[in-house]
């Protein structure tokens, strides 16, 4: 089995047509696009991602492992390893 190393990013979206706003979670293969979260935010985003993994598994994607990583400044980035095969 192979893996892809990805990083969690939280994107705020504003719909131009309606002005409605929402947040979207996505994964990027580059650390520089990871959202640097405050420690009190991490579990909420990780729990949301874990809850949706079942919809991301299929085909070559076999599962995901989640690793919150502390940064020197006290913030946290979330590294996600996608298992593929």
What's the short version?
The protein has 1 helix and 4 strands; from the N terminus they run E-E-H-E-E. The chain is of the alpha+beta class and 85 residues long.
* Count of discrete structural domains: 1
The separation of the N and C termini measures 5 Å
- How many E-type strands? 4
Strand order of the largest sheet: 2-1-4-3
Q: What is the approximate shape?
A: globular
Return the structural class: alpha+beta
pLDDT average, as an integer?
97
What is the helix tally?
1
What fraction of the residues are assigned to beta strands by DSSP?
over 45%
Summary keywords:
85 residues, alpha+beta, 4-stranded antiparallel sheet, 4 strands, 16% helix
Give an overview in words.
Helices cover about 15% and strands about 45% of the residues. The chain has one domain (about 1-85). By secondary structure, the protein is α+β, with helices and mostly antiparallel strands. It starts with a strand and ends with a strand. Strands 2-1-4-3 form a four-stranded antiparallel sheet, covered by helices on one side. It contains one helix and four strands, in the order ββαββ.
Show the helix and strand layout.
Elements: E1 2-14, E2 21-28, H1 39-52, E3 61-70, E4 76-84
Antiparallel strand pairs: 1-2, 1-4, 3-4
